[in-house]
Amino acid sequence: MISLFERYEACPDRFFDEVLLPEGKPREHYDKMIHRFGQFSTEDIRTRRQVVNVFFRNQGITFTVYGVDEGIERIFPFDLIPRIIPSDEWQRIERGLIQRITALNEFLADIYSNQKILRDKVVPAELVLGSKHFIREFIGVKPPLGVYIHVTGSDIIRDAQGRYMVLEDNLRTPSGVSYMLQNRQALKRAFPVLFDRYKVRPIDNYPQELLRTLQEISPTSRPEPNVVVLTPGIYNSAYFEHSFLARQMGVELTEGRDLVINNNKVYTRTTKGLQRVDVIYRRVDDDFLDPLVFRPDSKLGVAGLINAYRKGNVALANAIGTGVADDKVIYSFVPKMIRYYLNEDPILDNVDTWLANNPKDLKYILENLDKLVVKSANESGGYGMLVGPESTLEERERFAEKIVADPRNYIAQPTISLSRHPSFFNDCELAGCHIDLRPYVLYGKTPTIVPGGLTRVALKRGSLVVNSSQGGGSKDTWVIDE
């Protein structure tokens, strides 16, 4: 094995290694990559890492960490070794995600209309109707094209056997796609030579595909629908992404104070006067969209927006109430939804999940907290969770009290041995770090997926948590034609 990989340990008896086979040889689709890296010295790696850091800093590629004292903005950590997915593996991921998103959209259309799946007791009605994000007031409100989830980011992992599985779905305001796009640009700047011998599928058309999707859901017949991005503002953790996507699509980035409602129609203030808005790509949660309907103390939304939405004068992406389908309790029923609505077996499996509101499952969870990962049903970003094997007895006891007090709000899953990928840290040392994958599905007239996604990597040694807010970073993700 060449220099940079000489000391790399794959640990095939414990983890699926994305790059090396159990006997230590490179997987076929990584062979050229490893030999390319063999041409670089440690100093070359340091220099190229600096190139990436300067690029990220100049582009303002940051994220916000809440609850820290040293400042809110951080450069997004990026690892120089790309993750490679062969075309046959990608085809399976793509088919599985389109199947899954189609079923989830059918589920949302159903529960906000006839609720047949609840009457047939495929999904327990109390779990749906009692979900924090189920909004009863929107029963009967149909979005354009009957599509509720226009942008989805489902998190995919590989277990110790290398099987692709869906860990969770993100259907409200999934973030990270801007990092996917900028990672590609950063790697091209740092290692243009790496792209010489691979047919890497392009991803730079994502902003145009997103704009097309948003224009397709316009409720008006205007030939060029006006699309805007609605952001909570500069202190939101994903503000860079909001401004980046608006810029790439060539549309206005707006805050709630920039929009006004007149005669149940939405307008944005411009230097030329009010301009009609047809579609809002909103990065503001349901609760903050309209102080007349949801939280009266919200300064992020627009008074009267919901009435304009009800009247069919503006489209919102994603639709209101989609959060019920990325509730982690409801996640466990997605395979049943696929069979119920599509009469198909799931292409991508779920991770085994125990529901704390089920007395039998609750008993198992409490007795095995040291072995399980326990998650709050509606938290994200790695918050509200317990990684049992990495926890202390005191932490488990505190978490057990929370679970018993509110069992509907918790699920548990086995501690999956996430696949690992060699990554640089500690001054160019190579080590296996756990990764996942978040592809992005767009859904207008039909579902489409840009090949690849955001590969998130746990850059703390031994950590299973890939979220940037918990010390994670990301890699460029290549889907290749062989």
From TrEMBL:
Pfam families: CP_ATPgrasp_2. Gene3D superfamilies: 3.30.1490.270, 3.40.50.11290. Residues 82-458 form the Circularly permuted ATP-grasp type domain. PANTHER family: BLR5612 PROTEIN (PTHR34595), SLL1039 PROTEIN (PTHR34595:SF7). This is Circularly permuted ATP-grasp type 2 domain-containing protein. It comes from Chlorobium limicola. The lineage of its organism: Bacteria, Pseudomonadati, Chlorobiota, Chlorobiia, Chlorobiales.
